[in-house]
Structures are given as structure tokens and as C-alpha cells.
Amino acid sequence: MSAPLAVTCGDPSGVGPELAARIAAQGAPAPMVWIGDPRHLPEGTRWEAVEHPSQPVAPGALAVLPLTFAGPASPGRPDPANAAGTIAAIERAVALVQDGACSAVVTAPINKKALKDGAGFAFPGHTEFLAHLAGGADVVMMLACPELRVVPATIHIALADVPQALTADLLRRTITITRAALIRDFGLTAPRIAVAGLNPHAGEGGAMGREELAMIAPLLAEMRAEGLDLQGPLPADTMFHAAARARYDAAVCMYHDQALIPIKTIDFSGGVNVTLGLPFVRTSPDHGTAYDIAGQGVADPTSMRAAMVMAWDMAQARG
Question: Reaction catalysed by this chain (predicted)?
């Protein structure tokens, strides 16, 4: 059997601990070990401490690699005192995968402000921190569900800043990393990638913007000549209906909402965040800490379960 998934606790005041406990109780979709402080698990959770990820536990019990945090956790109330423990859980998960003791990293949501306030966390989020732990890997973010995979070329920046940030080098890098991941992690021998335009109607021949004519179309033509199967630049408003999605394996979009609105419309509960370009597999549920419902036992485990399934499948594809 392959090594288990390393599942991090995330912010212990969020829904991460309860999602892991519920999935273990219901039957995890893949072998898993949870990394965190067992004091933060919901009352009544069946868990067993393990010294190594491969150590078996009773059916329905959550295997726990214990980490001692600074204190208890209050659902819905992030505590900067627990920031160092949250970071340590991520570091432990990555180390386990790098050592071959675990097959992939699945991260529960974190609170960046709490990490910054409590531990001076210097990264915008999980993705950048994982790239740092991987030695400075060049990464991009994919959101995926069974019906659609999308990759935004620019992510958490103001819409007004997108045209300047969207360079030929950035778009080439995004497409190249996406294609390599589709081959290595998703088992596609000849990936088909659709690329959106930046402007309405993909610029409509320059009438609604010239980025397509000046940069996007020439770059795609150049990359097609190198052997890549690329469509575009395409009008974003006609890329995501069912017939259009059948013509490609992933869509590269120009900015955050252009990518995330369609996937969250198609599969709001089951989307998975995947970091492409890392030397190890990392997935995460496509939602946040959900402080408003943390500790109430009503959090939907669909996205976390989907993240585990995708991480397991990607790890198997990598062999």
C-alpha cells in the first residue's frame, strides 16, 4: 500500500479539525494521518496517536501525529498564540512527504493574519510557503473538480493591476507549468489547454482592448509552433458551457474571478485547490476556515474529501 496522506490541522479554531475527524469516522477515501494537537479535535473524536504515518489504527479512528500547540482552541476565535503550531504542522507534513513517509500533503485552511500576528508569517498564503519549503519551486494555482480545471495567471491582485502584471513571460510560465502537471499528475499524454482572452470578446480584433493582439495571440502561436495544443485567446463568456469544456483539459485564465467564478458555479462544494509545480503533491479544500460555523458540526466535508481523493490519485500518477 502507498504511504498515507499527510493532512494538516489548519487553523485549529476553524473547521479543519472537525472535517478530519468526520471523514475518518465516515471512512476516509485514502489512508491518512492528521498532524495537529489532539486537544483541538471535537469532543468524542476517536483518535489514536501514532509515532510513524505507517502505524495502523483501528477502523474509524483518526491516526494522529501529535503536535503540542501553545494552548486550546476556541471555535470561531483565531488565537495568534497557536500560529507557530499551525506552521509547524505544515512543515511536518512537507518533511514527511519529502522523506517518503507520506505520499501527498492535504492542507486544511489557515488564517494568514493570525499566523502573521502570532508568528511573523511572511508569506501571502499556503502556496508561497510551500514553494519556499520546496526550495523556491515555481508554482501556479489550479482549481479543479470533475467537470473543470482552471488556472489563473494572476491571482490576488486588484483588477486594475492585471494588465500590467500579465506579461508574456508570466503567461508562458503558467501554461508550461500547467501542461507539465497535466502530464505528470493527471496522466494526460497530450494535454489540450484553452486560454482565455483578457478583454470582453477576447478584444474583438482590438475594438475592446489590444492585449490579445499585442501579446496573448502571438505567444500562443509561438507555443503552438513548439508543439503545444493550445486554443485561444478565447472569449471567456463562451468557454465554460458543457460543450466548450469538452474540447479542453484545462483552462488558463487571465485573472482570479475569470477562473474561479465558473468552477464555483459548476461545483461550489467539491472544488479542490491544487498547487502545480511542486516536487510533491499538495491539495486543499477550496474554502476557508469557516469561523462562522466552526465547532457546530455542520461543516460540509465534500471539498476536503475531494482534496484527499485528488491528492491520492495524483500521488499514484506520480508513482
Answer: 4-(phosphooxy)-L-threonine + NAD(+) = 3-amino-2-oxopropyl phosphate + CO2 + NADH
- With vertex at residue 171, the alpha carbon angle to CA 170 and CA 176, rounded to the nearest 5 degrees, is 100
Q: Kind of pairing, strands 272-276 and 140-145?
A: antiparallel
Q: Are residues 72 and 189 in the same domain?
A: no
Q: Is 256 annotated as a binding residue?
A: yes
Per residue in 292-302, pLDDT (tens digit) is 999 999 999 99
Q: For residue 218, count other CB atoms closer than 10 A to its CB.
A: 12
Residue span of the structural domain in which 313 resides: 1-137+278-319
Are 228 and 260 found together in one domain? Answer: yes
Q: Which residues contact 170 (CB under 8 A, 6 or more apart)?
A: 153, 154
In a domain, 273, yes or no: no
Please indicate if the annotation marks 40 as binding a ligand: no
Domain membership flag for residue 272: no
Number of domains in the chain: 2
Q: Is 282 annotated as a binding residue?
A: yes
The answer to the question of whether 287 is labelled as a binding residue is: no
CATH of residue 261: 3.40.718.10
Extract the C-alpha cell encoding 197.
482572452
Per-residue pLDDT of 153-163, as tens digits, reads 998 889 999 99
Tell me: is residue 126 an annotated ligand-binding position.
yes
Instruction: Let me know if residue 89 belongs to a domain.
Output: yes
